[in-house]
Structures are given as C-alpha cells and as structure tokens.
Amino acid sequence: MSDTSIDPAEVAVEPPRPGVLLRIWTHKLVFWIGLAVIAGTAAHYRFIEGATTEDVLHVALLAAVLFVEFFMLGRMSRERLEREAESQLRSRVMIDLDNFRIALSRAYYLQELERGIRDARSEILFTTATMATSGDPHQRRIVEAVREKEAAIERSGGTLIHQGIVAKLPSCLPGAVELACKTRTEVRFRAYFGYTRLRFQVTDHSFSVIGVVEGEPAFDQVKSTHRSFSVESMLLAEALRDRFNQEWEASQSVWEYLDEHIRDMLGTGPPEDSAITQEHMLRLLKADETGVTCEEIATRSAQFRRLPTEAQKRARGERNREEQG
C-alpha cells in the first residue's frame, strides 16, 4: 500500500470560495431580461396589432412558467454550490485532522499507549516492531505506568495480565529484556511483526490503539510508528485479541531468543574461549539505561550464565601466561 500521508503545504492555501452571489445575480439578470422581452412582445400584440385579452393572458402564462423554471434552476444551482462548499469544508477538516495527528507524531501514539495502560483493569495485549529502553523519555513513562498499574491492581487483590509480542530483531532485545526484568510483563518474539505495518494494543477487551507505519514494510529497516488511531470497540478488540493469540502460540520467549542470539554470537566455540563476556552483553543490552543487572539476566538465561565475566577472563589469561612461561 502506498504512503497516504498529506503534505501540510498542500492545504496551506484556502480553497477557492464558490461565486454563489455572482451566479444568483446572473440568474436574476437573465430573468428580468426575459421578462422584459415577454412584456414588450405582449405590448406589441396588444396595442400595435390589436391582440385580444386571451393572447395577453397566454403570454402572461408563458411568463409565469418561465419565472417558475428560472426560480427552480436558481434554487438547484444554489443547492449544488452549497453542497460543493460543504464537501470542500468537510475535506478540509479531515485533512487538517490528519495533519494534526501526523504533527503529534510518535509522541501521540506513545501517549495513547500509556493512557491505555493507566486505564487498564485486568488485561493488556500489545504488538510492536520497535522496542525502546527507558533511555527514551516516552518509553520510561510507559514502564513507570506498567509498574504503577501492577502495584495498584495487586493492592486491590487482582492480577494484571500483560503480554506483548515483539519483532524478532536484535535491536528490540534491550527494551524487551528491561520490560521482562523490571515488570511482570510476558514478552515474546515473532519475526512476522517485522514484516507488517500494523501494530496494536488492546486493553480490557474494549479499547484498542492501532499504529500504522507509513510506507512499505521492510524487515531490514523497521520504521517507528508515527500514525495511530484509538478506537473504543469490543468487536475490534476481540478481533485483535484473536489475532494476538494466534501469533502468541507461534512465538518464542524473550529468554529463548536471547539464548539463541548469544549462541549465534559465540559460533561453534565454547563460551570460555570467546571474547564475549557478561559485561559485553550488558553493554549490548544497554544496562546503563535500563538498570538491568547480571543477576536478573543470569537467573533467566542459561547461555548468559555460561558466559565468563571480564574478571574471570583476565584471570584465565594470566594463568595461561604463567603456564606458558
């Protein structure tokens, strides 16, 4: 599907106002000219050629018919112009609303996601192809909103179901690991969401936030969402939930994907012989932004536990040098 975004410059110029008054006066002028011709003809027949009263009445009837026809034509033309003006106004309003939504851009989309989280009572389901960390101020607000909502629901004796499917991309790992460690969110990965333009969040079977990426989807260059729509509809929410559940069954957990990613980085050699350490992985996962620790990841990822620390790596190197010496 081609990009349907609107350039604000295209609507900066006011639409031309239809010449309603000019056309009305034109119809009036034509009417009076026609009436004058008819009156002149009637006078000619009456006074010059000695026409009868019946002839004059016949001409008067003709004038009345013409008057009604001109009047109806004027009304029809006026109504047509009013419809055109109304249509132009409606189009202008829709374009302005579209440009306003685009101008709000990604901030508006993330604010709607945050609003859905804060208004949730029992369930939040979401999909995304990009996953920022708390280094992004909007994502930080979303993480804080999740924590506050979890605490509020737990105080009331309930449990928040919060599940998300993320595009299977290494760039999404830092944000997904943070969300899985710092909240009770279940995060899974699915390659499909890197190919689709659609992202959504469904709250409590009723409220949906739909994000649509502009342009053609490309897995090697995933774009952030800058256009979104918020819809209060149980029918739409249930349809999105069904789709989510289908993809959820075919996805893999964040820790399975992290183990797979570490194995790909290690290659065929043993972990202790690799240059990759736990500290190296923490830097890749942007732990300085998220606050995620080695202990939080090691308790969940088997491949991460097998990685040596930089201290262990240095100690092993010193032992090898001593043995060689």
Describe this protein's structure.
- With 325 residues, this protein is of the alpha/beta class.
- It folds into three domains: 92 residues; 130 residues, Endonuclease Chain A (Endonuclease, Chain A, 2-Layer Sandwich); 64 residues, no CATH class.
- 58% of the residues lie in helices and 12% in strands.
- The chain contains eleven helices and seven strands.
- It has a seven-stranded mixed β-sheet, sandwiched between helices.
- Helix 4 links the parallel strand 2 and strand 3.
- Helix 1 packs antiparallel against helix 2 and helix 2 packs across helix 3.
- The chain starts with 19 loop residues before the first helix and ends with a helix.
- The N terminus is likely disordered.
The number of distinct β-strands equals 7
- At the first level of CATH, the class of the largest domain is Alpha Beta
The biggest sheet, with number of strands, parallel, antiparallel or mixed sense and barrel status, is: 7 strands, mixed
Query: Between the first and last Cα atoms, what is the distance in angstroms?
Result: 67 Å
The CATH architecture designation of the largest domain is: 2-Layer Sandwich
Low-confidence stretches: 1-18
CATH overall fold name of the largest domain: Endonuclease, Chain A
| CA gyration radius, whole angstroms | 36 Å
Overall structural class, as computed from helix and strand content, comes to alpha/beta
**Morphology:** elongated
Strand order in the largest sheet: 6-5-4-1-2-3-7
Helical percentage: 55-70%
Report a brief summary of the structure.
The chain has 325 residues and is an alpha/beta fold. It is 58% helix and 12% strand. Helix 1 runs antiparallel to helix 2 and helix 2 (53-118) crosses helix 3.
